[in-house]
Design goal:
Oligomer: single chain
Protein name: Candidate ABC transporter probably involved in tungstate transport, ATP-binding component
Bound molecules: adenosine-5'-triphosphate
GO biological process, one term: phosphate ion transmembrane transport
Radius of gyration: 18 Å
Family: Belongs to the ABC transporter superfamily.
Distance between the termini: 37 Å
Number of domains: 2
Number of helices: 9
Shape: globular
Keywords: ATP-binding, Cell membrane, Membrane, Nucleotide-binding, Phosphate transport, Transport
GO molecular function: ATP binding; ATP hydrolysis activity; phosphate transmembrane transporter activity
CATH architecture of the largest domain: 3-Layer(aba) Sandwich
Order of helices and strands: EEEHEEHHHEHEHEEHHH
């Protein structure tokens, strides 16, 4: 296995708040890593660090320079233009000619089930449709690594399943996934490895089967065990 991202002894500070403490994370090609933990535990901050959006106060971030990376945010950013243009612009910014970008955009929208709304203003789409639009945009960029921050938060069960199916398609295509989630069912369905954060520290990092093993988890981390029991109670 070769690492696509290596984070070592990472600290992040926002003024007086220390959002990450000495985080070590090695991400190998093809892994599907779920970041879990309570609100404010540092999941979004860690994803932003991995995407190079937040500077480290201490430690180091090494990324495979050849690996293409994309991030899907919790509330995707959409521009006030058609869904097709929203996707095409991302390609155009990476150097694809406009006509080709539009064609690829329409293909990607069809792939996420948005063909009928491709010409509609993206701002007028529902939350679930906007999330799928963000995934279509990411799909077009053909990332080797895809980071997702609670991609199904605030979606209804149907939309949630569709987004999960798309994430599984990325994984099947060989994309390395790192996603934050509050949904432990989703974590079991999609992740190969689980990282538990509490107050900015990684307190457990284990393969998914081990993490959800009732005997093994308390041995790995009492805090993670209490969190999982609380979430499934
Ligand atoms: N831009 C910022 N400025 C100041 N503090 C911040 C900033 N971003 C995050 N924080 C703080 O850093 C800590 C970690 O926040 P973060 O958003 O990473 O947590 P999270 O686990 O993603 O939470 P949630 O599950 O609610 O999305 C929190 O105490 C938060 O208030």
């Amino acid at each position: 296995m070769s690492a696509v991202i290596r984070l070592q002894s990472a600290d992040v500070r926002f003024g007086p708040v220390q959002a990450l403490h000495a985080v070590d994370l090695r991400i190998d090609v093809g892994e599907r890593i779920a970041l879990i933990g309570a609100n404010g535990s540092g999941k979004s901050t860690l994803l932003r660090v991995l995407h190079g959006l937040v500077p480290l106060a201490r430690g180091s971030l090494l990324r495979d320079g050849a690996a293409r990376q994309a991030m899907v945010f919790q509330r995707p950013f959409v521009m006030r233009t058609s869904a097709a243009n929203n996707v095409a612009l991302a390609l155009w910014l990476r150097g694809t000619r406009w006509r080709a970008a539009r064609e690829q955009a329409l293909g990607a929208l069809a792939r996420v089930g948005l063909a009928e709304v491709a010409l509609r203003n993206a701002r007028a789409l529902s939350g679930g449709q906007q999330q799928r639009l963000a995934l279509a945009r990411a799909w077009c960029l053909q990332p080797d690594v895809l980071l997702l921050d609670e991609p199904t938060a605030s979606l209804d069960p149907h939309a949630k399943r569709e987004v999960e199916a798309l994430m599984a398609q990325f994984a099947d295509a060989g994309t390395t996934l790192v996603f934050a989630s509050h949904n432990l069912g989703q974590v079991k369905r999609l992740a190969s490895r689980v990282v538990y954060l509490e107050q900015g520290r990684v307190l457990a990092d284990a393969p998914v089967a081990e993490f959800f093993d009732r005997v093994r988890l308390p041995e790995l981390s009492r805090e993670a065990d209490l969190f999982v029991k609380g979430e499934t109670a």
